[in-house]
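Researcher: Sequence recovery benchmark, item below. Answer with residues only.
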């Protein structure tokens, strides 16, 4: 391990949070965790009260005025959800709540129920009014869920806060959503970020990504899932069907400057699959990705912004 590293941990947003600094600064760490907590309080849909929940509670009844931060993040989520063939849909809430994957009471819902809940997931039925920062869900029962974007946004907020505090080298991991500042001292090749072996033990890695000042976000089907009838039912849903996305992918990792982009792109690329995803990335010079597939391949898009060191040779690495 790097000399002089100080690690601070917490559990927030239902996720293990890890902060690495190169000064022993518990006060700064406390401020970072407070910032995350404050953001969680705005965005969570896992409690009865938050700004996002107040929008959900008023669905089909009236618009709700929200804070600047919440309006800004909802606006981004809305725009991404309206992209052609987008696998990202921030009105997926009724589906997420019904499946309860990662929570008590998880179950495969009856197909007719999924079909009727899908009618409540049309992002065109969200009315955003920048003039008064209000959000209106037009149908009763509609629910916003920012689970696929909020951690990325919050990781960027933490990075900006640390920079403001004069920190030049740090890492924040919000449970699979990593954002970094600089490189660790005496390690010019950057931060080593482990790529987990899907369904493996916590310490089993396919390899290590080396990045400097970049965000690394992974979405996988092996973190939140349950098994039933020989199938893995995981938490990334196909907005067209209301069932977990079912393709060749086990995970997608995105390397980008902003963690919000990493969070958005992992979901978009998950929906595209490998070949379409690689073609899409060819036009996105600032975004790199690593796809991990069921047939044991690790596929890197042209790695401009990272170096990948393979550790598990049972998997085939290709570019
Ligand atoms: P990503 O792949 O980035 O996103 C998957 C998540 O996005 C799903 O869990 C779902 O919420 C949503 N989603 C699914 N399909 C789609 C789709 N097609 N388009 C758009 N969104 C989709 N977990 C707990 O166990 N307890 C908590 O109290 C809790 N509180 C949280 C509070 C906040 C503010 C946030 C951001 C997350 C919280 N979580 C909590 C975790 C949350 O439930 C999700 O599991 C987590 O955000 C998923 O992150 P990911 O990076 O693993 O997955
Ligand atoms: Mg995420
Ligand atoms: Mg995401």
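Model:
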């Amino acid at each position: 391990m790097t000399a002089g590293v100080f690690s601070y941990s917490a559990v927030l947003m239902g996720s293990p949070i890890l902060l690495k600094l190169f000064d022993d600064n518990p006060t700064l760490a406390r401020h970072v965790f407070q910032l995350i907590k404050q953001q969680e309080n705005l965005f969570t849909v896992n409690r009865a009260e938050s700004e996002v929940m107040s929008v959900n509670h008023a669905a089909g009844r009236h618009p709700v005025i929200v804070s600047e931060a919440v309006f800004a993040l909802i606006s981004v989520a809305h725009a991404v959800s309206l992209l052609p063939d987008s696998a990202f849909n921030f009105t997926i809430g009724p589906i997420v709540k019904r499946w309860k994957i990662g929570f008590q009471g998880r179950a495969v819902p009856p197909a007719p129920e999924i079909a009727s809940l899908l009618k409540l997931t049309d992002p065109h039925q969200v009315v955003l009014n920048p003039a008064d920062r209000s959000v209106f869900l037009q149908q009763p029962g509609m629910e916003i869920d920012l689970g696929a974007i909020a951690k990325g946004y919050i990781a960027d907020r933490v990075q900006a806060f640390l920079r403001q505090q004069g920190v030049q080298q740090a890492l924040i991991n919000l449970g699979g959503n990593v954002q970094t500042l600089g490189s660790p001292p005496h390690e010019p090749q950057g931060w080593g970020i482990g790529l987990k072996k899907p369904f493996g033990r916590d310490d089993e890695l396919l390899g290590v990504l080396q990045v400097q000042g970049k965000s690394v976000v992974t979405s996988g089907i092996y973190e939140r899932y349950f098994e039933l009838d020989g199938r893995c039912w995981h938490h990334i849903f196909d907005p067209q069907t209301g069932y977990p996305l079912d393709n060749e992918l086990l995970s997608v990792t995105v390397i980008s400057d902003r963690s919000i982009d990493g969070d958005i792109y992992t979901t978009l690329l998950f929906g595209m699959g490998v070949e379409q995803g690689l073609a899409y990335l060819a036009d996105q010079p600032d975004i790199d990705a690593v796809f991990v597939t069921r047939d044991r391949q690790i596929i890197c898009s042209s790695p401009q912004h990272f170096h990948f060191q393979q550790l598990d040779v049972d998997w085939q690495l290709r570019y």
